[in-house]
Design a protein that fits this description.
Structural class: alpha/beta
Number of helices: 10
Number of strands: 9
Radius of gyration: 20 Å
CATH topology of the largest domain: Rossmann fold
Shape: elongated
CATH architecture of the largest domain: 3-Layer(aba) Sandwich
Bound molecules: S-adenosylmethionine
Strand order of the largest sheet: 5-4-3-6-7-9-8
Low-confidence stretches: none
Mean pLDDT: 96
Number of domains: 2
Order of helices and strands: HHHHEEHEHEHEEHHEHEE
Length: about 290
Amino acid sequence: MSPFAPGARPTVGELWAALAERMRAPEMYSEGPRHEAAELLAHALGLLPRDLEARIESRITEAEHSALLGILSRRLSPEPTAYIVGGVEIGPLRFKVDRRGFIPRLDLTVLVEAGLAGVPLEAKGRALDLASGIGAAGICVAHARPGLLLDLADVSPEAIELARENAELHVPGRASCWSGDLFGALPADRRGSYIVITANPPWVPDGTVLPDEVIDHEPNVSFFGGPDGLDLVRRIISELGSWLAPGGIYAQECDPSQVTKVLELLRGVGLVNGRAHADAEGVLRVVSAVRA
Ligand SMILES: C[S@@+](CC[C@H](N)C(=O)[O-])C[C@H]1O[C@@H](n2cnc3c(N)ncnc32)[C@H](O)[C@@H]1O
């Protein structure tokens, strides 16, 4: 499978380009082929992606090459890159991830930015990431706003363990982690206190066929949200008014086809300033609204 002449070991730069090309194949479902290639290659070299540039001209060793082949065969099996390397980068932060939790997708930054848009830099108060998985969105929000205390809540105790580990890495001493069903996981005295709530709950309609690398590896509780995908979203939105502080912002990811419906649900419970937020390709995949 090597595109290189026998005996001529490639440079890191050559391998990176070849791997990125492989990741561009439609069956790889890569969100960012060059970024993903960097993750795999760096792992084989015992580095982080940010350290690759410094080695770009050097030829890889025999041992590094065979490590890479092992890693590639796992990726082609198909196992998700984040589980192979044990990490994922969202915005400026690198998170630990393993099979205990859903892998945050790179466009989670759209949700983070939508939440931050409602919170001044010097804000003090509480933030919540509901259905937080490994905690990436909430931790990015709290990292960008040092005056916030963060609650992370998810139904999966395993995902919450990972969220706790990630919070200790990036926002030490500022996060509390809770396991349970939606708002039921939280202490009652948090009601009315959140100046920002982020959520990327399950929103995939039941029966949707997902790629093998997703459905065979990530926790099944992460995906499906009933016949139209919005069962959990409806439950969350029906309770928002009693958990947001006055003026607090709610930001939520959903499928682009659900944006209009979710904005309507938010208006229906009296939230105002409903907005849709686009990703880098201009696709609307996050909505936000504010408690008056
Ligand atoms: C699509 S994943 C997103 C995780 C995380 N927000 C992210 O973007 O990386 C959905 C998450 O919802 C959690 N979840 C599913 N049902 C839940 C419930 N009833 N209450 C709280 N969390 C739930 C799953 O455990 C999973 O971590």
